[in-house]
Structure formats: structure tokens, C-alpha cells
Amino acid sequence: MAVAATVAISNSFTPSIRQALTPINRFSSLSSSSSTSISFPTLQSHSFVPIISSKNPNFNLLVSSAMNIEATDKVSPSSFLDRRESGVLHFVKYQGLGNDFILVDNRDSTEPRITPEQAVRLCDRNFGIGADGVIFAMPGTNGTDYTMRIFNSDGSEPEMCGNGVRCFARFIAELENLQGKQSFTIHTGAGLIVPEIQEDGKVRVDMGEPILKASDVPTKLPANKDDAVVHSELNVDGVTWHVTCVSMGNPHCVTFGTKESKDLQVDKLNLVEIGPKFEHHDVFPARTNTEFVQVHSHSHLKMHVWERGAGATLACGTGACATVVAAVLEGRAGRKCTVDLPGGPLEIEWREDDNHVYMTGPAEVVFYGSLSL
Questions:
Q1: Which one of 25, 60, 219, 321 has the lowest number of neighbouring Cβ atoms within 10 Å?
Q2: Which of 253, 316, 321, 337 is labelled catalytic?
Q3: Catalytic residue at 253?
Q4: Higher pLDDT, 43 or 192
């Protein structure tokens, strides 16, 4: 699969998000040859821009930012993705608090336009576009407006993704040229999801009811509070952690600390070392996402996440939802919290009247591109 991309990069990100996105500047081939042009809206057309070329038996790379300098306010997905070219995949890259995705307009088919193996290569941050996953906007199912499917960066397919569904909502709004406050229904592997685009551009998502029954999360840990696993002990590599298990349509293991150290300092954790040990623990038959949480106050939590199939990411929407549910069950926080993630804050509310969890946060365009398949 050769790559030929014209890219316009958004200028609306914080320095931390821009730093997280710098791998796109090393965009390279997914097969034997490629030609890539990347345009930066912050540059003037007369600016001096170096051309970098690299060759080896596996790929050819040509990067130039001196061409087609287009700010994202002059390019819209509705016009860009309307281009119909045989063998070409148009896409838009979005990010929600640094959790980044390649969005594909797949509304004309119920089958994804690329394979899981191709998704792995596209998500590679050194030899691909770079992303935590590829999201497909598909026709609705069972009366819903749309269907959302995702391939993770490792090729696996999760049931749902909270940050991804916010990006999906903004993507659909631009494809359909929807203005102002909008709401629609999305079929996912986790069931019905209803996002609502707010007047300020943020997306509020009804994430549905949390699933607490141990066998449905799923986890093999024995239930210790009705049918749920709450503040239960889990031995991970010789260390006893206290965990609460929650499903938001996908499995989560939430911990606020170990038996020896009750107050977790999340910035001191080595996620790359400890995360996979939770994800692949034998008490989680479908593997698990893991949230490591620090409590600042009754309404303010700080969370780092190891995502199943994606590893350490800057944000996880379903993880933030599961975190608040777990904090309420353990008596650590109220039902309405700000959850700080490495990429920024999410507002989470677990409403008592309908038992639904509501998530509110941003989603923004990073750039537009094309791939020769």
C-alpha cells in the first residue's frame, strides 16, 4: 500500500498536544515506495522549507512542507472527502485530548475499507500516519443514524471508544454540514451511544449505564459487593492492588492504589512496565483497560491509563467514565467529577436518576490526507 498524502495541520493545539503529534512529521511509506507532502498552516508560501529524502530497501520517503499551504479553516471534510478516486483512501485525523484517530468515511459500505493489518501500519508513529486507532463511519444499524467500528493500533477491534466517539461525532457533523447543537444515534459494539455536539463545539456523550456484574465485565475475580467487584485485591507480579471492575461496554480495571500504598501518585508510575501485566492478567478473559487514579478532591480526579490494544495513551473516555463510577462505588468521590488525563480534562457525571454516565470533552481536526491503496 503506497502512500501519497496532502496534509493540512491544525494550528489550534496546546504545546503538549503539538509535541505528542510530532511523529507525523516523519511520515513514511507503508510498502515499497511513497511520496508525501505535508503542509503547515503556520508557514508562509515563500518560507524556506527543507526537503528531506531517505531511501532503503523497504521504503522511499519524500517530505515537503513548501506545497499547498492550507489552513484547516479553508479545507472541510465535506469537500475533501467528496473526492472519489479509485484506489484512494481519503481520511481525516482527529484528536480528543491527544487520543488520536484516523477517521474514514465508510458510509457506503458495511465492510471497513481497510484491513486490521493495514490499520496497524497506518497507526505506526514512525512508519505510518500515527494514531491510536482507525475509526470507520458506517451506515446505521437497527434504526440508528450511523455505525462506528474501530481497529486499534495493534489490529484488535474494541467494542467502543469514548474519545473516539467524540471525534466520530465531529467528523459526521462536518461530513453532513451540520451546524450548531446536534445529536444523533450511533450503533457500536457496546450498544447504543448518543453524542450531542454543544454550541461551544465540545461533545457531550450519553455513554449509557455502567455494567458492574463481574461475569459481564468480564472478570474472573469473585464478586464481593452484590454481583460487582469493588475494592477487591488483585495480585499483579507480587504486588497486591485494590481494584474495582467496571464495563462501559468495554472492560476496565480501576485502581486507586496498592495494599501497601493507598494513595497513588500516578506521575511516578511506569505504565509501560505495569500496564501490560494488568491487560493480560488471567482474571480478565477479554483483556482489560486499566486506570490508575489519584484523588485530588471529592470532585477532582487524576488518571493515567493503559488501554487494551493501544497501550499508554493521552486520554481514554470510557476509562474516565469507569474511573468516576469506581470512585463513587468506593466512596472516594461524588457523581460529578473533573477527570484530569495527560491530554487534558474531561467532565464526567454518573446520574442517579437514569443511571447513565455522561462525558463531555473536546474533539478537533489534526489534518486531512489521502492514501493510495
A1: 25
A2: 316
A3: no
A4: 192
Which one from 161, 167, 321, 337 is the annotated catalytic residue?
161
Give pLDDT, residue 63.
Answer: 29
Task: Report the amino acid identity of residue 103.
Answer: L
Q: How far apart, in whole angstroms, are the C-alpha atoms of residue 64 and residue 321?
A: 41
Q: Can 316 be counted among the known catalytic residues?
A: yes
Strand partners, 56: 59
Q: How confident is the model at residue 16 (pLDDT cuts 50, 70, 90)?
A: very low
**Which stretch of 82-91, 137-146, 261-270 has the lowest confidence by average pLDDT?**
82-91
Note the pLDDT of residue 130: 96
Residue type, 91: F
List pLDDT tens digits, range 313-348: 999 999 999 999 999 999 999 999 999 999 999 999
- Domains annotated on the chain, with CATH: 3-208+363-372 (3.10.310.10), 214-355 (3.10.310.10)
Q: What is the 3-state secondary structure (H, E, C) of the chain?
A: CCEEEEEECCCCCCHHHHHHCHHHHHCCCCCCCEEEEEECCCCCCCCCCCCEEEEECCEEEEEECCCCCCCHHHCCHHHHCCCCCCCEEEEEEEEECCEEEEEEECCCCCCCCCCHHHHHHHHCCCCCCCCCEEEEEEECCCCCCEEEEEEECCCCCCCCCHHHHHHHHHHHHHHCCCCCCEECCEEECCEEEEEEECCCCCEEEECCCCECEHHHCCCCCCCCECCECCCEEEEECCEEEEEEEEECCCEEEEEEEECCCCCCCHHHCCHHHHHHHHHCCCCCCCCCEEEEEEEEECCEEEEEEEECCCEEECCCHHHHHHHHHHHHHCCCCCCEEEEEECCEEEEEEECCCCCCEEEEECCEEEEEEEEEC
The pLDDT of residue 262 is: 77
pLDDT at 79: 65
Could you report the per-residue pLDDT of 32-51, keeping only the tens digit for each?
333 333 333 332 332 222 22
Cα 174 to the chain's mean position, in Å?
A: 19
On average, the pLDDT of the chain sits at 83
- The grid cell for 341 is 488525563
